[in-house]
Amino acid sequence: MTAPEITLNDGRRAPMISLGTVGLRGQAGKLAILEAIRNGYRAIDSSTNYNNEGIVGLAVKESGLARTEFFITSKLPGSHHNYDRVFEILQEQLARMGLDYFDEYLIHWPNPDEGLYVEAWRALVDAQKLGLIRSIGVSNFEPDHLDAIIEATGVTPAVNQIESQPYFNNETVHQYNQKLGIVTEAWSPTGRTNNDVKSNPVLAEIGEKYDKSIAQIVLRWLIQRGVVPVIKSGNPNHQRDNLDVFDFELSDDDMEKIFALDKGEEGRLEDQNPNTYHEYV
């Protein structure tokens, strides 16, 4: 089973579900990613800060599939918001992964206190022209950040990967993305260990109605909004279940029940507000 695809604003196509790899490291991580590939995942999301780009690259190589079968994403760390340093780290990341290009490359955080994200975006625009990146985008950008880079370069990101989960749906940013023709991706869509999304009784009740797990209900809620989930799992059964979300549709009433779980700023997973958060490495 593989996920259907969505068309980005640059004309390229990307799977509607991506495998998150944070925490998947070493031999165990490589085997988990290989299992995910066997289970049908073709979009794989990594980052320098995950300390696993080499492992991701090995899994892609050892899968035996053609490079063109994959949609590989990595991200620019906050310490490299400088035009020349963007190219240095980008080339290093490609070398670690054994790739000639990234299908998607994102500025991980805007770091607005530093004010260099526009310069970083200019570098991504040029890296795309050089063929190092197929689709360029951002992560955790608010509307003001998006406006600034578009005004400065005339180039609109293909993707904005943001936090979007039941306790913090981030619908305002998602709608702004849609207004600009930007695809929204969602990191940690089913929460983390510091919240109880996976045991929420409202989500459990909806799951019983459709004979689906809570994770499947959340993923379907995102997909019906036009959001691409980036979901991490090293468990083969969960990997398969997370792809098995295209055979049902949530009712409008159930969609609203999930929207009603939103807690605003208190619902953020790590209290990482992009207007104030700074990624130092």
TrEMBL record:
Residue numbers marked as site, Lowers pKa of active site Tyr: K75
Listed InterPro entries: AKR, Aldo/ket_reductase_CS, NAD(P)_OxRdtase_dom_sf, NADP_OxRdtase_dom
Gene Ontology MF terms: oxidoreductase activity, acting on the CH-OH group of donors, NAD or NADP as acceptor
Coiled coil: none
Catalytic machinery residues: Y50
Annotated TM spans: none
Keywords in alphabetical order: NADP, Oxidoreductase
Binding-site residues for substrate, renumbered to this chain: H108
Domain NADP-dependent oxidoreductase: from-to ranges: 33-261
Any matching Pfam family: Aldo_ket_red
Family assignment from sequence similarity: Belongs to the aldo/keto reductase family.
Protein's UniProt name: Aldo/keto reductase
Naturally occurring in which organism (per UniProt): Aerococcus kribbianus
